[in-house]
Write a structure and sequence with these properties.
Elements: H1 6-14, E1 32-38, H2 42-55, E2 60-63, E3 79-80, H3 87-101, H4 103-107, E4 118-122, H5 125-141, E5 146-148, H6 150-156, E6 171-175, E7 179-180, H7 183-196, E8 200-202, E9 207-213, E10 216-222, E11 225-234, H8 240-247, E12 254-265, E13 273-276, E14 281-285, E15 290-297, H9 310-322, E16 331-341, E17 348-351, E18 357-361, H10 371-384, H11 397-400
Parallel strand pairs: 1-2, 1-11, 2-8, 4-13, 11-18
Antiparallel strand pairs: 3-7, 4-6, 5-6, 9-10, 10-11, 12-15, 12-16, 13-14, 14-15, 17-18
The structure holds flavin-adenine dinucleotide (FAD) and pyrrole-2-carboxylate.
The site of pyrrole-2-carboxylate has 9 residues, from loops.
Length: 414
């Protein structure tokens, strides 16, 4: 693999940039791997990367039914923050945020991490109490957030209307080192680093069955033939229920569409990320100038990767009260992804009833920010059988009643 650097750009300029080569190989599957990961989204690729980097396990295949990063990883609004309430969540989300800080250097790939700050607005008294409580919890957890009043909100976001008639801005939870990253680049950077370690990333390869013998996984059936494996990681977000069914167990997961949209590009007008969870919308400005806007989940289960139409109108109507300038924007395009929701709005990183099968899912509306931390923890779980950052998120919490309630921190109405 060619190292990317300013020198490499200058060197390649001499040959009209004809010598770069592919960022990752496109191999045919081998008949057996030590580890097979299903799903080449951010979480699957990060898991493979840390299996290699932290545990020296490189006989790994990542199988993807479409194209890598084409699931929710390439469809999200890229918000990164770690301002969760419960200790186990703060630990894994803050690990992820900290890894994002150095990810471009680690992967030798520019993931465009932009710690521009993330502000969650409080527009009701219960949100004020909730976010003040989170700020106190974060102080104890070592996560740097602070409660700010309405005047500070106005300084941070000059285009905001803090005196809205229905929902005035009463303050907010501010995380100065939250922000965004380029979603595709996160997938591409991990893919390139995995490929350089000798791992096979196999696109257009759908897993159609899971083969077991004596309660233990032995391989998978795919659209490119059967592949044997020692361990299997299922990392397929909204399709987790379908994969689990192939392996003979059930998950406490529901799949719903979550959608987003972008406006025409405009001049820079907002240099932080803002989430307005009561009126229900969130917004940031991309490097191209588009306002990136997200709405809520559909209120019924589906697999449409589109989202229902009335949500667009609802999201924009809600945002216009808090950001009047939105009323003058033309919207360019809209899309959706299938998110995997658990009852407590926390993820599942767990062993399963089938020996050798591990599952990483349930990130729901908020897993982009978690990718590096999730990959780090899940790789450790797969390599060693337990992992401090993952253990609280095991499947048995649903039978034991150890819920990790993050329905407020999730920020997106469900
Ligand atoms: P995915 O990226 O969906 O990857 C799973 C992969 O598995 C897919 O590529 C799929 O094709 C593949 N697959 C499925 N079945 C099979 C099979 N049988 N065989 C082979 N491959 C298979 N999170 C944030 O933190 N911040 C945000 O601002 C944010 N905004 C969002 C906005 C929207 C509109 C959406 C939809 C999501 C948002 N999220 C956000 C959530 C975030 O995108 C997801 O939690 C995260 O991307 C999940 O990553 P993943 O790798 O688990 O899943
Ligand atoms: O988890 O921060 C988040 C988020 C924002 C939009 C969708 N998810």
């Amino acid at each position: 693999m060619k190292r990317y650097s300013a020198f490499a750009v200058a060197r390649e300029a001499l040959s009209y940039h004809t010598g770069w080569g592919r960022a990752w190989r496109a191999p045919e599957p081998k008949s057996r791997y030590d580890v097979v990961i299903v799903g080449a989204g951010g979480h699957g690729l990060a898991t493979a990367y840390y299996l290699g980097k932290n545990f020296g396990i490189t006989n790994v295949a990542v199988l993807e039914k479409g194209w890598l990063g084409g699931g929710n990883t390439g469809r999200n609004t890229t918000i990164i923050r770690s301002n969760y309430l419960q200790d186990s969540s703060a630990a894994i989300f803050e690990k992820a945020r900290a890894l994002y800080e150095g990810l471009s250097q680690d992967l030798n790939y520019n993931v465009m991490f932009s710690p521009r700050g993330c502000l969650m607005l409080a527009q009701t008294q219960s949100e004020v109490r909730g976010y003040q409580r989170t700020a106190h919890a974060n102080a104890l957890q070592g996560v740097q957030t602070e409660w700010v009043g309405p005047q500070r909100v106005k300084e941070l976001v000059p285009i905001i209307n803090i005196d809205g008639p229905r929902y005035p801005v009463l303050g907010g939870l501010w995380q100065a080192r939250g922000g965004t990253a380029r979603h595709d680049a996160v997938a591409w950077g991990y893919a390139r680093a995995c490929s350089a370690m000798g791992m096979d990333i196999i696109q257009q390869c759908e897993v159609t069955g899971v083969r077991r013998e004596g309660g233990k996984v032995v391989g998978v059936d795919t659209s490119k033939g059967a592949i044997d494996c020692g361990k299997l990681g299922m990392v397929v977000a909204g399709h987790s229920g379908a994969l689990a069914e192939m392996a003979g167990f059930r998950l406490p997961i529901e799949s719903v569409a979550l959608q987003a949209l972008v406006s025409e590009p405009i001049k820079p007008c907002m240099d932080v990320v803002v989430m307005a969870n009561t009126v229900h919308g969130y917004m940031s400005q991309s490097d191209k100038g588009e306002m990136v806007i997200g709405g809520g989940t559909d209120s019924f289960n589906n697999y449409t990767q589109r989202g229902s139409f009335h949500h667009i109108e609802h999201t924009l109507a809600a945002l216009i009260e808090t950001f009047p300038m939105v009323s003058r924007l033309k919207m360019l395009r809209q899309w959706g992804g299938i998110v995997d929701m658990t009852g407590d709005r926390s993820p599942i990183l767990s062993k399963t009833p089938v020996e050798g099968i591990f599952i990483n899912c349930g990130w729901g509306t908020g897993g982009f920010k978690a990718i590096p931390g999730s990959g780090w923890a899940f790789a450790e779980l797969m390599a060693k059988g337990h992992a401090p950052l993952a253990d609280d998120f095991s499947l048995d919490r649903f039978t034991e009643g150890r819920f990790i309630d993050e329905s407020v921190a999730a920020g997106v109405a469900h």
